[in-house]
Amino acid sequence: MSKPMLFSPGPVMARENVRQSLTHYDICHRSPEFEAMFKDTTDKINKLFKADDSYKSVIISGSGTSANETVLSSIFNDGEKALLVRNGEFGNRLQQILDQYKIPYVDCSFEWGTRPDLKKVEEALKSDPAVKIVCMVFHETSSGMINPVKAVGDLADKYGKMYMVDCVSAAAGQDIDVKDMHITFATSVGGKCLGAYPGSAYVCGKQDVLKTLTPEMGKNVYLNLARHYQKAVASNQTPHTPNVNLFWALQTALTNVLDEGLDKQIARYQEDAKILREGMKKMGLKFLLPEDQMANTVTSVFLPEGKDLEEFIAKMDDNGYTVYAGKGKFYEMGMFQVANMGEIYPDDCRKFLTVLEKCI
Description:
- The chain folds into 2 domains: about 110 residues, Aspartate Aminotransferase, domain 1 (Alpha-Beta Complex), CATH 3.90.1150; about 240 residues, Aspartate Aminotransferase, domain 2, CATH 3.40.640.10.
- Helix content is about 40%, strand content about 20%.
- It contains 13 helices and 15 strands.
- α4 links the parallel β3 and β4.
- α2 crosses α9 and α5 runs parallel beside α6.
- The chain is globular, with a radius of gyration of 20 Å.
- The two termini are about 25 Å apart.
């Protein structure tokens, strides 16, 4: 069987040396070799976010949601609230976590595919002094929109609030500078733009905040940020048995990106997206968003009227290409999503367009 071409926003196609790293010989996670690998990997996560030594990264064995849940379940004292800025499925996922742990929050919501209004965000910030942290998604994958992360970070800084940003589908695909954007906690996972695998999530956080956390503040045992931080600082370890195989893959993918240059990878993603979007425009397809709001790696596009979405996706799959159906109301509108994350290059995008035109 020929391998499918994954033009979907995760899991992604991995480079051969990342795949081969999964076959690394077995080691004990309580060993000097693991600790050296853990330190190298977390140092590289810091570099991915352009963080200095005032930040510390930890690795969570779980999906991107596990990294978000680790932060949100670990940082609140009684009486403290979050300010949630949401405009899509993954903003709603943050809401689901807050609701599950019964954490109070100010809900600053917008229509899916609508850019957050900064005036409304600022009004919400001023409305409740109990707000401790602002939470938002960097790349709202359900629409393909890049949210105004720097502008909201400036507001969080202005009002003395922490700032958590879900960078799950943005890290290694968008330019992220945690210091410049005033980000307190950035979360992501290997199996997106980085080009590794699902199940290797990570959190990059400000050390002056991480030092104030205690295990007792956490509402979860496994996803307990204080425990992860304390273990990482004390011994380059995790508090529980990690998925060691995925750590090797994460380290290799980070090494690939950083050795070749993060800017070069982002430029490749931008070139891929340009090829795909220009080709789809020539076919007369319509986009959900204006191009200046689109991510470097996901394009949300509508099928021509009268075409059946499920039949189209099945036909693409039969031709060896995987794309995503839109979520929620976008599904009903006949929207599908084309991603160019992972090992996708300009020639792959040109071949994709040939198949896309045939299937449409």
